[in-house]
Amino acid sequence: MKRTLAVMFALTSGMVSVANAEVQENIADAPQNPLATPHERPQATYRFIDPGLPTTVGDGVSAAGGVSNVIYLNNCKPNGCQVTPGNDDSVNNRSSIPDQASTVSPWGYSDAVWTQVVDCVKATYAPFGVQIVTSRPTSGNYHMAIVAGTPQNVQMQQGVGGVSPYTCGYIPNAISFSFAGVYGPNVDDICWTVAQETAHSWGLDHKFDNKDPMTYLQSGPTRKVFQNMAGSCGEYQARACQCGGSTMNSFQEILQTFGGSTPTPPTVTITSPKAGDNLPVGFPIRADIMDDIGASKAELRIDGNLVSTLTSAPWVWNAPATVGQGTHTIKVTGYDIGNTPAEASVSITIGAACKKPGDCANDTDTCVDGRCVAGEGVTGGLGSTCTKNEECKSGQCGSDGTGNSYCVENCNPESDGCPSGFGCISAGASGGVCWPGAGGGGGGCNTGTDNGGAIFLGLGLGALLITRKKRR
User: Fold this and answer.
1) Where are the domains of the chain?
2) What kind of fold does domain 267-350 have according to CATH?
3) What is the mean pLDDT of the chain?
4) Looking at 195-283, which runs of residues are DSSP E strands?
């Protein structure tokens, strides 16, 4: 005899709201009144089953058999799916959902739409050791996901998008129902429902996260993926999870059940700038990140230093104005939903390359550390008087604290980098700057003037103390 707890999931069934809802992300469309029905999309649900049910069904066939990683997608073609009530047993078409012998009407859309749904479900479960098949296995245990029909086929009420047996753990040989007939040929909605219903039979609750397939929220991407982050359970408001705790990480729960698949890293391409480009200060950086499941974040590093992290496309940045003249390495690291990384890098130069001022195309340019920069005699060029960064071609106005302020260029104190009449004053870990009258330049290592003191650089990030050293 079928035994089910007399509890159909409902928003009004005494769920406990949790106080830490402010930690939630991805909840843009959570309504002010969570007990309203603010959805147009038919929503999937679950039905509790008695966790104390025996491990065998009526004819002695085992319904336990351990965890199977096989999901059989059944579109019930051509004649519908016959299911009988009883303890869940996919092998023998028994389900705890219907109250009587039932026939689920067959898939009603094209074969092309069916193929897209199958591909979507495969992509959704790609990070995990799960096998998606469309032919009934001839042996062994498996989850059967019926993707067809309407809720009325199994005595469910109108507006239910899907249903699955649910308890606080894995249900062997379960049958879930995703009622494709209520969605029309909407691939993303059907795929979302299939993912939610199959996962319910493994013990996953609804999640208050509009990017996750376990969600009721409809904002966020139409194609949901399991989020590798803890968040509150819930439908239209955060609540405690049905099986204990205040949060759930759907990705980790599935990973713990089935293990991971062989990870496929994303493909990262820096589309701008190109390797070897000569660029202005603050140049744009663009990257494409392609993945079979979806990219979860991208990190930008310049010369090994983390500059910014984005969590959604477009993957576009502007290089900070503090990245000055010279050669720099741009690296973008992309991650898939399972945090599998891949990276791409290019080397660029801010300013044209040179060995001496005569190598520069403009007579007014000079050469600093192998690059052409605006020189003396040009407004905002090296050595021009200034009061703020914006007045300098380099974006850097330096002051010695005694009323002397000049446009400066970055330089390496350990090399012969500044032109005649300038010296490279050390800035510690930040390198150095070419300062007028701080030595002859163009002849060995020059690290300062004969007198002590300090240079302050207005870099837009606060004053930077530049220590003058005695000339050697």
Assistant:
1) 4-258, 267-350, 357-467
2) Immunoglobulin-like (2.60.40)
3) 79
4) 231-234, 238-239, 247-248, 267-272, 278-279
